[in-house]
């Protein structure tokens, strides 16, 4: 609705999904079944219903601040759509998803089927997971187009990613991407090597950071559990991992495929665990490994 508040319940099906516009508040507790795209283009949508869709969900595709709150009663299944959830898809305004419960899922091995946070050039996307589950094929923080900002705060819940988990995904380079994990469990399955990575493209203005504290980040697949801190690189580009108090990162290894940029792995109270026997858990290609007083 346009700048109005409303509550919807019941069952809706068809070929076209709902679009939330205007600055009002809407609450949905109904069941949706449809094949088209759906969007939150302004205001706040509280979603506690079930949904089965083959189309994209866009949060801020029109340039207006847009929020979707996913609550404990939500069961959102998006199947068959590449780039399934676009959070922040316009250079104006902010797109945000706040998930405190429920579930959101795609095909676990469906290529690009997943969540993009900051998905358009110069856009700002934000995702907060404090409860519930995410089960998707791919998560891209800061991607795909030039110089977006993507921020993912995970304070609880469980996230399972079937293929790609990329911090700094933008294909054109530039922008800022951050994954802050202070609770919950993330399982990065990555069946192929180098799918868990940072800084997809080379750009002097690009930065990617992972912070882990009081949480478990697991990439334990024997053939794909390596964190690549720099897929691409150039002078000025930065990637950093901060393993903080109570944080556990369980990986096959840590490397940097490109050494032109700067990559820092910092220990300050957390634990890095090897999922398989590895004489070089952190390779020499990583620019610097720091152990601070809490490490």
Provide structural commentary.
There is one protein chain. This protein has 295 residues and is mainly beta. Helix content is 0%, strand content 52%. It contains no helices and 29 strands. It has strands at 6-8, 11-14, 19-21, 25-28, 31-34, 38-41, 43-47, 50-53, 57-59, 66-70, 75-78, 85-87, 94-99, 103-105, 114-117, 124-129, 133-141, 149-167, 175-188, 196-198, 206-212, 216-219, 226-228, 238-244, 248-251, 253-255, 262-268, 271-274, 288-291. It has a 29-stranded parallel sheet that branches. It is globular and about 50 Å long. Residues 4-16 have low confidence and may be disordered.
Helix content estimate:
under 10%
How many H/I helical runs? 0
- CA radius of gyration is 19 Å
- Biggest β-sheet: count, sense, barrel? 29 strands, parallel
Q: What overall geometry do the principal axes of the alpha carbons give?
A: globular
In the predicted model, the low-confidence regions spanning at least 5 consecutive residues are 4-16
What's the count of strands? Answer: 29
Quaternary state, please? single chain
Helix vs. strand class: mainly beta
Secondary-structure element string? EEEEEEEEEEEEEEEEEEEEEEEEEEEEE
Strand content: over 45%
Mean pLDDT across the residues is 86
Task: Report the end-to-end length measured between terminal Cα atoms.
Answer: 52 Å
């Amino acid at each position: 609705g346009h700048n109005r508040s409303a509550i919807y319940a019941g069952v809706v099906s068809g070929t076209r999904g709902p679009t939330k516009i205007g600055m009002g508040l809407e609450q949905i507790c109904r069941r949706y079944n449809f094949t088209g795209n759906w969007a939150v283009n302004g205001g706040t949508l509280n979603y506690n219903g079930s949904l089965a869709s083959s189309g994209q969900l866009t949060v801020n595709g029109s340039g207006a601040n847009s929020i979707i709150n996913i609550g404990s009663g939500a069961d959102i299944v998006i199947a068959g759509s590449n780039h399934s959830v676009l959070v922040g898809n316009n250079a104006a305004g902010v797109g945000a998803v706040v998930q405190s419960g429920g579930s959101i899922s795609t095909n676990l091995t469906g290529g690009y089927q997943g969540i993009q946070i900051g998905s358009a050039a110069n856009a700002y996307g934000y995702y907060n997971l404090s409860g519930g589950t995410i089960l998707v094929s791919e998560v891209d923080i800061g991607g795909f187009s030039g110089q977006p900002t993507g921020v993912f705060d995970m304070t609880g819940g469980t996230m399972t990613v079937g293929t790609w988990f990329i911090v700094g995904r933008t294909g054109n380079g530039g922008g800022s991407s951050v994954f802050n994990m202070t609770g919950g469990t993330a399982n990065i399955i990555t069946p192929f090597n180098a799918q868990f990575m940072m800084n997809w493209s080379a750009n002097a203005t690009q930065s990617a950071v992972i912070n882990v504290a009081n949480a478990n980040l697991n990439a334990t697949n024997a053939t794909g559990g390596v964190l690549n801190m720099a897929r691409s690189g150039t002078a000025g580009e930065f990637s950093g991992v901060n393993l903080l108090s109570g944080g556990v990162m369980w990986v096959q290894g840590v490397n940097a495929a490109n050494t032109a940029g700067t990559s820092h792995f910092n220990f300050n109270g957390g634990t890095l665990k090897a999922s398989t026997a590895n004489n070089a858990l952190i390779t020499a290609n990583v620019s610097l490994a720091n152990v601070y007083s809490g490490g």
